[in-house]
Structures are given as structure tokens and as C-alpha cells.
Design a protein that fits this description.
The chain is α/β, with parallel strands linked by helices. The chain folds into two domains: about 190 residues, FAD/NAD(P)-binding domain (3-Layer(bba) Sandwich), CATH 3.50.50.60; about 140 residues, Alpha-Beta Complex (Polyamine Oxidase, Chain A, domain 2), CATH 3.90.660. Helix content is about 35%, strand content about 20%. The protein has 14 helices and 22 strands. Strands 7-6-17-18-19-16-20 form a seven-stranded mixed β-sheet, with helices on both faces. A five-stranded parallel β-sheet has the order 9-2-1-13-22, covered by helices on one side. The radius of gyration is 24 Å and the shape is globular. Bound molecules: flavin-adenine dinucleotide (FAD). Flavin-adenine dinucleotide binds next to α3, β16 and α14. The site of flavin-adenine dinucleotide (FAD) has 39 residues, from α3, β16 and α14.
Length: about 450
């Protein structure tokens, strides 16, 4: 029985259609032996950084690779938008840890890209129209450090997981943080932790908080946008945009993938669908994924972060400011594009429940709420923005959230289970499959390289 015959048996009509359409390797009628050194046909689902990294690596080793991408652009959650004129990163913005070992930094050097070091200390926090002075900010930082050091100790001895909100509450009591300082410290905590994990403190596991690793060195941003990296890296790849994958069929002889534009078959497939998309069931696996993987999917969580880029005629905020916030309004911060360029854009960054609530509102209403915050902060005549762009990552059917986090009771081991190959035909990559650097661009990139390596080893074990 050939691969096609077998796949037709397991998947019925959709695979008959596949046979009619032909795959990326229509002439390969005999199943790969696993020791053959012939070119392998490999389909990569998703042209985000994980898929592009995998495809680049496989192509460099002479394999036939086709990427199937649902959107009309590549990059996925890396998205530099130019609808306002200036480049604005509506997805990933910071390259975390630009020091030794970060593979994205190697690409930045290779492509000779301009970048700027981020200054997270440059925070302008407003309360009742006044800027909170530096000495008071230092106290917030100090208190937060004390509390988080306490959480690190506490979580080691937990018999049962608790949320970060509960852990911080406990520590505030123990450390006797004064109520007057609590608001400022909490603003800082929410800014640091919620933004990092794209979830509310009440949703985040205390046990697994801060268990992921980082590369050394400062975070950097790109004045011309993060998308440059995926654009440059994807040069020459065969990417089929506007191909929405609806079904993935697999068996020991190979893989067949159905899209809304036709069907494809191959020896192997790398699935880089975001966690939220896998959880939604929008893409059918045939046969279904192993119970262990399904259980892992159930125990993982996708966080939400949204951005609203407000483009003004002229800046009305301190032009040197990087980040601005409004006490006690937590879970919302404004990042100025001025340190990165000359465009007067403020990017409002919201996470967790606020970000999800924004998705239920019309753009005008979201902008009006943000303008209310800015007017409360500055207490002056803050002008209306001339245009804006609003993201909805949670509602995006091809992302279904911003990035993964470990919920209360969850575990980072689930990321490893999500990554496990199935039948040595389906391989999984994407930020949520990385146990060490989840939720990041570099984590997604490394997961793509790992999936490619797995296939190369199978295809050519010597
Ligand atoms: C608002 C926001 C801010 C962020 N900030 C940072 C940051 O500052 N630093 C950082 O390191 N990380 C950040 N991240 C996270 C980072 O962007 C992601 O971890 C990383 O880009 C994920 O890459 P990926 O390849 O795993 O997934 P994706 O980029 O999501 O790629 C998956 C691809 O699959 C496609 N797809 C989905 N469904 C289908 C289908 N049915 N058929 C075909 N194709 C499909 C999608 O369109 C997408 O292109 C941020 C993310 C968001 C949303």
C-alpha cells in the first residue's frame, strides 16, 4: 500500500481530493524508509518565526519545504504595521536578552539591523496630574523586589500551587508594605509580571512564575520594526499565503494537509499553530492527537495582550519618556515611540482582562477610554489623536491570544509534551512548545530549529 492509499483510507474524501490536487511531492510513491537520504517533502504549517526558522534550516539542508500560512502576511505574532505611516510593532516589540547566545541577536548582526537598547527604568508614573518623584519610584521598586524575593522563597515550599495574586498578598502582609505604597508597588508588579506573561496575577501560577530562563544582556527594539527579521530570514522560501489549514491527517507513511485552497501531502509536517489555535479545535487532526498531548493542551493557557497605537500631530508628553503610567490604573501602560524615532505615537499596552474587555468594544470606544486616562494623567488639553490602530489578538482566529503562560495548577512540562513528535511524522514547534523560553520570539525560533533537526536526523541518521 502506498502512502497515498493509506492516507485515503484514514481520511476519506478530503484525501481523495488531495490525490487529485497533488502534493508538494506528487512523484514520491514509495514510503520513506527512515534511512533514505533522498530529499524529503516537508510541510510547515504557519509562517511565524518558528515556521520560518524550521523551513530555513531544512532548506539549507536541501529538503523540499512548503509553508502554509493562513494570513496574507508572514510573521504571525511579529507584525510591524505601517498603516499609520511610521512602523509600529503591534506584536513582539522587545528582543529580550540581546547578550551572548540569543539566536535572534545573531540574525540582527547577520542582517546588520539598527536597534536601540530599552530603558525600563525610564518610567513616568502620574498620580492626580503630578509625576511621582524618583525617590518614591525607588521605594516601589525596592518593595517590589522584597515581595518578589519572598515569592521565590515561598513557591519552593508550596504543597499546592497558588496564584501570583495570592502569593503577593501573603508577602505584602508578611513584609508589612504600607498601604500608601501598595498602589505604586502593585502598579510596578502588574507592569513587570502581567506584561511578561500576558495574564492577570490571579491567573498566573506562583509555582512556575520566573521558572523560564532568559538570555543575558539588555532588551532591544528595532526602529524599523521586528518584521525585518522574518522578512529577511524568509527570503527565497516557498510560502503559500492565504492557505487556511483545516485538517492534518497523518500515518506512518506520511502526512496530508487540507487547506481552503486545496490539499498537500508530504513525508513530514511541522505544526507551528499557536497554542490557542490548537486548543480551539479549528484544525482537525486525523487520527486525533494522543491523549497525553490533549491533556497537556487542556492544562495550558494563552494570555492576551493588546496594543492601541495612537498617532498624534505633536507630542504632548515628555519626549524623553519611554514608558508612562497612570496611578492607580494598573494593567495599562503607554510606550512612546519617540525614543525609537521621530514619530509622535503612543502605544497603549493592555493585558489580561482589560485587554479582553477592549476586544468587546468598538475602536472609537477603546480610544475614548485611553484618551480619558491620558487626560487624567496630564490634566491639560490633550489633543485627539489623528489616527490609530487597535489590535485584537484574542479574537484573531489565527492567534487566539498573545502568548502562552502557566496557569495556576499548570506546569512547564506541558510545553514539552506539546512538542513531542507524533508517529515521527508530525513535529510541533512554536513558542508554547518551548519549555525554557516560552512566550518569546527567541523561544519560538529555537523550537523551529529543534523540529527541523529532529526531521533531519530521521531523514539522514548518519
Ligand atoms: C502583542 C504581543 C506582544 C509581544 N511582545 C513580545 C516581545 O516584546 N518579545 C518577545 O520575545 N515576544 C513577544 N511576543 C510573543 C512573540 O510574538 C511570539 O512568542 C512569537 O512571535 C510566536 O511565534 P510562533 O512562530 O510560535 O507563532 P506565530 O507567530 O503565531 O506563527 C504561527 C502562524 O500560524 C498561522 N496560522 C494559524 N492558524 C493557521 C491555520 N489554520 N492555517 C495556516 N496557518 C495558520 C498564523 O497566521 C501565524 O502566522 C508578543 C506577542 C504579542 C501578540
Amino acid at each position: 500500500m502506498t502512502r497515498r492509499q493509506f492516507l485515503t483510507l484514514i481520511s476519506g474524501a478530503s484525501l481523495l481530493f488531495l490525490t487529485a490536487c497533488g502534493g508538494i511531492s506528487p512523484t514520491a510513491t514509495s514510503p520513506p524508509t527512515g534511512t533514505s537520504t533522498r530529499k524529503q517533502d516537508i510541510l510547515v504549517v504557519g509562517a511565524g518565526i518558528a515556521g520560518i526558522a524550521a523551513a530555513t534550516s531544512l532548506r539549507e539542508q536541501g529538503q523540499n519545504v512548503v509553508l502554509l500560512e493562513a494570513k496574507d502576511r508572514i510573521g504571525g505574532r511579529i507584525w510591524t504595521d505601517r498603516s499609520l505611516g511610521p512602523p509600529v510593532d503591534l506584536g513582539a516589540f522587545w528582543l529580550h536578552g540581546s547578550g551572548g547566545g540569543n539566536p535572534i541577536m545573531s540574525l540582527v548582526d547577520q542582517f546588520n539591523l539598527d536597534y536601540i537598547e530599552e530603558d525600563f527604568e525610564d518610567l513616568w508614573l502620574y498620580q492626580d496630574g503630578e509625576v511621582v518623584d524618583g525617590a518614591e519610584l525607588d521605594v516601589y521598586f525596592r518593595d517590589l523586589k522584597t515581595v518578589l524575593d519572598g515569592v521565590r522563597e515561598l513557591k519552593g515550599g508550596l504543597s499546592q500551587d497558588i496564584s501570583m495574586a495570592t502569593a503577593i498578598d501573603k508577602l505584602m502582609e508578611t513584609e508589612g508594605i504600607a498601604a500608601t505604597l501598595e498602589q505604586g508597588m502593585m502598579w510596578r508588579a502588574l507592569s513587570e509580571i502581567q506584561v511578561e506573561y500576558a495574564a492577570d496575577l490571579s491567573q498566573l501560577s506562583a509555582r512556575y512564575w520566573d521558572e523560564d530562563l532568559t538570555f543575558p544582556g539588555n532588551d532591544i527594539t528595532f526602529p524599523l520594526g521586528f518584521s525585518q527579521i522574518v522578512q529577511r530570514l524568509s527570503n527565497g522560501l516557498d510560502i503559500r499565503k492565504r492557505h487556511v489549514v483545516t485538517e492534518v491527517s497523518y500515518s506512518s507513511p506520511g502526512v496530508a494537509i487540507t487547506t481552503d485552497q486545496g490539499a498537500f501531502d508530504a513525508d513530514y509536517a511541522i505544526i507551528t499553530l499557536p497554542l490557542g489555535v490548537l486548543q480551539s479545535g479549528d484544525v482537525e487532526f486525523n487520527p486525533g492527537l494522543p491523549p497525553k498531548k490533549l491533556a497537556a493542551l487542556d492544562s495550558m493557557a494563552m494570555g492576551t495582550m493588546n496594543k492601541v497605537a495612537l498617532h498624534f500631530e505633536e507630542p504632548f508628553w515628555p519626549t524623553e519618556a519611554h514608558c508612562l503610567g497612570n496611578l492607580p490604573e494598573s494593567g495599562l501602560e503607554f510606550w512612546s515611540s519617540l525614543p525609537h524615532g521621530t514619530f509622535p505615537v503612543l502605544v497603549a499596552l493592555s493585558v489580561g482582562q482589560r485587554a479582553i474587555r477592549f476586544e468587546t468594544m468598538a475602536d472609537d470606544a477603546v480610544v475614548a477610554e485611553l484618551m480619558g486616562s491620558l487626560r487624567h494623567m496630564f490634566r491639560t488639553d490633550v489633543p485627539e489623536p489623528k489616527d490609530w490602530v487597535v489590535t485584537r489578538w484574542h479574537g484573531d482566529p489565527f492567534s487566539r491570544g498573545a502568548y502562552s503562560y502557566v496557569p495556576v495548577g499548570g506546569s512547564l512540562e506541558n510545553n514539552e509534551v506539546l512538542e513531542e513528535p507524533v508517529l515521527n511524522r508530525l513535529f510541533f514547534a512554536g513558542e508554547a512548545t518551548n519549555q525554557v523560553y516560552p512566550g518569546t520570539v527567541h523561544g519560538a525560533y529555537l523550537s523551529g530549529i529543534r523540529a527541523a533537526d529532529r526531521i533531519l536526523k530521521l531523514a539522514n541518521p548518519n
